[in-house]
Amino acid sequence: xxLPESYMQVEKLRDGELLWATSNGLVYFLPxxxxxxxxxxxLIVSGLEINYRTLGDxxxxxxxxxxxxxxxxxxxxxxxxxxxxGASSSKIEYRLLPADKEWRSTYGNYVELRDxxxxxxxxxxxxxxxxxxxxxxxxxxxxxxxxxxxxFWGILTLVGGVLALMTLGQIFMLLRFRKKKKxxxxxxxxxxxxxxxxxxxxxxxxxx
Length: 208
Description:
31% of the residues lie in helices and 30% in strands. By secondary structure, it is an alpha+beta fold. The strands form three sheets. The protein has a five-stranded mixed sheet, with no helix packed on it. It is rod-shaped.
């Protein structure tokens, strides 16, 4: 639409509608309708920072389901917008499930989440300025992964490593036992031969 260059080109009708002419025809509307339409917009997620680093289009994150972050990626800035024109701050209500039971309030265009522990979360956000209806709730599902050692494969690897060490220890003890037993047998044979040799010498002396 073409906006008028001066308010002198705008006509205000009796019902409060504003009217002006453009090259494509007449434009008219009620200012109150525009105001309600703007303020009743649902919140949307417009940007995301992870550990104070902006998540760009080339970031290796999957948006087809819950966002998944590494264990150390636990500080988030979720930027939100209601598609209003202007840079004025507005009140936002949010809660992080399952941690929060009540709604929290903030002023600005983002929600800050710090030092999150591993687990599954749902961030709910709503615009409390919506009038005449229950404000729609915007959801953002995400997961803070546990350290690799606490994952299924980490635990499986750890258990496998412990079992392998136990098996190697048993094999080592068995080989050591066999070697000791073999040395004992050799020692017994040598002692037997020495005793036989001593007995022969003693018998020879007696005969002489």
